[in-house]
Amino acid sequence: MQNQFVIYGANGYTGALVAREAVTRGLRPILAGRNAAALATLAGELGLDYRVVALDDPAGLDNLLDGVTAVLHCAGPFVFTSQPMADACLRNGVHYLDITGEIGVYEALAARDTEAKAAGVMLLPGVGFDIVPSDCLAAHLKRRLPTATHLTLGLRALGGVSQGTALTGLEAIARGEGGMVRSGGTLTPVPNAWKTRTIDFGRGPRPAVTIPWGDVAAAWYSTGIPNIEVYMAFPESMIKAMKVSRYLGWLFRVPGVKALARSRIRSGAPGPSASARAEGVSLLWGRAEDAQGRAVETRMQTPEGYTLTVLASLLIVDKVLAGAVKPGFQTPSMAFGADLVLAIAGVVRTDL
Ligand SMILES: NC(=O)c1ccc[n+]([C@@H]2O[C@H](COP(=O)([O-])OP(=O)(O)OC[C@H]3O[C@@H](n4cnc5c(N)ncnc54)[C@H](OP(=O)(O)O)[C@@H]3O)[C@@H](O)[C@H]2O)c1
Description:
The protein has helices at about 15-25, 35-45, 60-65, 80-90, 105-110, 115-120, 130-145, 165-175, 215-225, 235-245, 255-265, 275-280, 305-320, 330-335; strands at about 5-10, 30-35, 50, 70-75, 95-100, 120-125, 150-160, 180-185, 185-190, 195-200, 205-210, 225-235, 280-290, 295-305, 330, 350. By secondary structure, it is an alpha/beta fold. The strands form 3 sheets. A 7-stranded parallel beta sheet has the order 3-2-1-4-5-6-15, with helices on both faces. Strands 10-11-12-7-13-14-16 form a 7-stranded mixed beta sheet. The protein has a two-stranded antiparallel sheet with strand order 8-9. Helix 3 packs across helix 4 and helix 4 (about 80-90) packs parallel to helix 5. NADP nicotinamide-adenine-dinucleotide phosphate binds near residues 12, 77 and 78.
């Protein structure tokens, strides 16, 4: 099955969106995951092969990856799922793509750069909304101001979140993770919603707060800019709640509380509806500054986050299957350039 790819976690909200679009484009990925019943249903609907393999089964993963070119890993929280799949990819010479936004996962994969180069394997996390648009924006700002020492990125997502995204956030709060910025090249923990600033994404000023978005890790590798902050726009009431949440990590470590929160999340819709995805957009803004006080700013508009994740991940899968591969740890812009995101329908980039 040369030039074949696997979608792992294919029965999840996002994995299934990707699988459906892949079939529409004439691709025939192998669907995989741990959930036999859900995979059988989806594979039956799409007319695809499926394989049931748990991530704690290295022999099963080796078998799954035998002869395939790449894995698109869609099973998160990736803090629990990335390493066994990356291990399997490195053992089997298979390129690893995922849709994580988790800083710890980027750092863990970046630490395996030498190992990946030796194996001829590309480790490319963040091929979805985290972080294709923002990473391309960061690389574009660096291109506009090569002397930049400070990078500030802002995001405004006009659309909902999936259960998987909410659960990934819950896990981070429960582990006591707060915010994160990069300062002097070093990842620096800060409180949740540490700093507030007003950002104009092109539709008037909006309040935004620092969040531990994947670019705090990745943009350092993409641009070498040592000081990085990422902001997300929220309503004022949400910003207040985020500040209160700084003190809630302990609560989710009380037996039963995390399980209750999980079941509340699981009782809702799996993710944004088709109409919410079609109507939503995402807005980005970025600024790079240097020590001489020069600054450049750029805005970007993209499709809604889950739609963008489908389009970006399959764009990158196409490139990898066509042999466009750089072994080692990569970010989207390192692998495919700052203009990668412009190949996605509906993306508009505007230099200010
Ligand atoms: N980059 C982006 O912009 C972007 C976009 C969308 C989602 N995400 C991230 O992608 C992840 C999935 O999101 P989602 O909305 O698709 O979530 P979801 O609907 O909850 O699906 C999660 C999938 O992962 C599987 N899974 C979870 N833990 C696993 C484990 N330990 N071993 C094997 N399989 C496991 C689940 O299998 P079961 O059915 O067996 O539970 C399911 O197939 C989340 O971490 C989310 O934050 C990122």
